[in-house]
Amino acid sequence: MNDSLNILEINHQIINSDELIPLLTSYQMLPQLLREMIIDKSISQWEDSTNIPINFTHEEINRVQAQFFKQQQITNAAQETAWLERHGMTKTQLTSLTTRKLRIEKFQQATWGHKLESYFLQRKKDLDRVVYSMLRTQDAGIIQELYFRIQADEHSFAQLAKTYSIGPEAHTNGIVGAVEMGTLHRSLAKQLQVSQPGQLWQPTRFGEYFVIIRLEKLLPAQLDVFMRQRLLRELFEVWLQDKIQQLPASERAWLVSKHTVEQIDRKTVA
Questions:
Q1: Per-residue model confidence as pLDDT tens digits over 182-216
Q2: Three-state SS across 12-56?
Q3: Cα separation of 24 and 31, whole Å?
Q4: Are 174 and 165 spatial neighbours (Cβ–Cβ below 8 Å)?
Q5: What DSSP character marks residue 184?
Q6: Which domains, ranges and CATH numbers included, belong to the chain?
Q7: SS3 state at 96
Q8: CA 217, CA 196: separation in Å to the nearest integer?
Q9: CA separation for the pair 2, 8 (Å, rounded)
Q10: Which of 6, 33, 157, 270 could bridge to 17 as Cys pair (CB 3.0-4.6 Å)?
Q11: DSSP string, 115-173
Q12: CA–CA separation, 114 vs 84, rounded Å?
């Protein structure tokens, strides 16, 4: 890195300050940079407003730095010094870099940790997982006949799904899951949420398909360590998007790539 504040040298290529923003934009790196800057500024403002600094124990610092050194293949003090010189960083800056993820996690816990139980209950119906059998065709006559065969125990659900179903479930004997309710087609999820294990539903139309459903197993979501981490990240992302929406339109424009396209709802019957 060049000593000048206005010039960056990478791989024998000198980049002037006027060229840096266009380069970040062309490589679609600017949105991520601005996102991280918003996070850091917002957390600092939160610390100032609440008078609750986010601190780390020596054990925490040693742990995250050990993980970082392992990733960077730094095994001794000389290699650490060389790495700092190569990246133009001080030890203080290195500590800030290695503890940043932990800083965000502590901020998440301090801000939303007390809300997790209520948020979990609010989200639980979408977080519950199910295993179910499904058979689908586009022929209304065939689906009704298959339903009667299953109901009369003339053939197993698995056998008929393997033979007649036109979705990927044909390769798994009709079994789908375990999958979260929230990832399913809304009507299908609603049907499964009121089902009892082993309950066979009459053929129902979902879009272009006629579908037979049978709930095999319900796996209720649990508020364990991993779920807590996931929900904290969800709440953090909602907060961050709100922060982004509060930016002036001219600044928000930097966060939208020219290649951005509309998101397609990927929730399907399966």
A1: 999 888 999 999 999 999 999 999 888 999 999 99
A2: CEEEEHHHHHHHHHHCCCHHHHHHHHHHHHHHHHHHHHHCCCCCC
A3: 9
A4: yes
A5: B
A6: 1-56+99-125+222-270 (no CATH), 129-219 (3.10.50.40)
A7: helix
A8: 8
A9: 6
A10: 6
A11: GHHHHHHHHHHHH-EEEEEEEEES-HHHHHHHHHHHHTTSS-HHHHHHHH--SGGGGGT
A12: 39
Residue 213 tokens read as: 């459903």
β-pair type (204-206, 209-219): antiparallel
In terms of Cα–Cα distance, which of 116, 99, 95, 110 is closest to 46?
Answer: 110
Is the backbone of residue 204 left (phi > 0), alpha (psi -120 to 50) or beta? beta
Whole-prediction pTM? 0.77
Tokens of residue 3, six digits: 């000593």
**Per-residue pLDDT reduced to its tens digit, 72-112:** 999 999 999 999 998 889 999 999 999 999 999 999 999 99
Calculate the CA 166 to chain-centre distance: 30
Q: Quick one: pLDDT at residue 268?
A: 38
